[in-house]
Amino acid sequence: MTAPEQPTPDHSHDNDSGLGQAASQIRSETTKAVEDIKKGGLPALFRFDKMYFPGLATFLFAAYVIIVAFLGIIGFIAALSSWPEEMGFWGWLYGVGLAIITPIFLIVLGRIWVEIVMVAFKINEGVQDIRASLKDRK
Fold first, then answer.
1. Which residues are CB-contacts of 100 (< 8 A; sequence separation ≥ 6)?
2. How many Å apart are CA 37 and CA 53, to the nearest integer?
3. How many helices (H) and strands (E) does the chain have?
4. How confident is the model at residue 101, as a pLDDT?
């Protein structure tokens, strides 16, 4: 005897693209927020149970790298355009070298800062897991 087949839900209206998934996630988050407000609680945005920065960190760092690289290119062009007659050959070489090294240094510092912040978020996740496991023991 075989188990009866369960009906499969009709998902013909669902969009399999990332946009459709994002829309359904927004819909579910909105529904949760409305239910929280009806229960007398705060929406998830104001509870800080879920951290949003880790998801934004990649985007923010990419934007930072693009801006620093763009400004570095502008600085490099400005350094090249000020020919040695104005400040001497060694001053010109110093300006060109500084225009190359500074953006690289700033990008490395930005990466270190993002990693430090992400470590803090990972520590928070670990503490939350420990708290949840201790609650389960009780």
1. 72, 76
2. 24
3. 3, 0
4. 92
